[in-house]
C-alpha cells in the first residue's frame, strides 16, 4: 500500500494537500535510508578522516527525516507550529547534508546520490511548508 493510499483512508478531513504530504513523507523516508547508507559507505572509505563532517551530516539528516516523516504521518490533532518547525528543520538538515555530500560527489558515488536525494527531500518538504 502506498503512503498516499494510507493517508486517504484516514477519517480526518485534513486541510493539507494529501498528495504533497505523501510525497514529503516518501521523500523523508527515502532520505533517511539514503543518508544512513551514505554514512555507512563513508565509514568504509580509505579516506574516512576526511569524511567525518559528511558522516555527521548524514546521520543528523537521517534522524531529522525520520522524525519529520513520523510527525507528517500523524493526522489527528496535530500542532501546526510543531509541523512547521519540523519541516523547517528537515529542510535545513537536507540542505546541510546535500552541501556536505556535494563536496565529495566527484569522488564518491554514494555522496552524489545522497546529495540528490537530500535536495529532493528538501523540495518536497518546502511544498508542504508552503501549503500550511
Summarize this structure briefly:
It is built from 5 helices and no strands.
Describe this structure in words.
The protein has one domain (16-131): Up-down Bundle (Substrate Binding Domain Of Dnak, Chain:A, Domain 2), CATH 1.20.1270. It contains 5 helices and no strands. The protein has helices at residues 3-8, 18-43, 52-73, 80-102, 109-131. α2 (18-43) runs antiparallel to α5.
Report the portion of residues in β strands: under 5%
Terminus-to-terminus distance: 26 Å
SSE string, helices as H and strands as E? HHHHH
Give the overall shape.
elongated
At the third CATH level, what is the topology name?
Substrate Binding Domain Of Dnak, Chain:A, Domain 2
Major beta-sheet overview? none
CATH architecture: Up-down Bundle
Helix content: over 70%
Topology readout:
Layout: H1 3-8, H2 18-43, H3 52-73, H4 80-102, H5 109-131
Helix pairs in contact: 2-3, 2-5, 3-4, 4-5
Pick out its properties.
132 residues; mainly alpha; Substrate Binding Domain Of Dnak, Chain:A, Domain 2; 76% helix
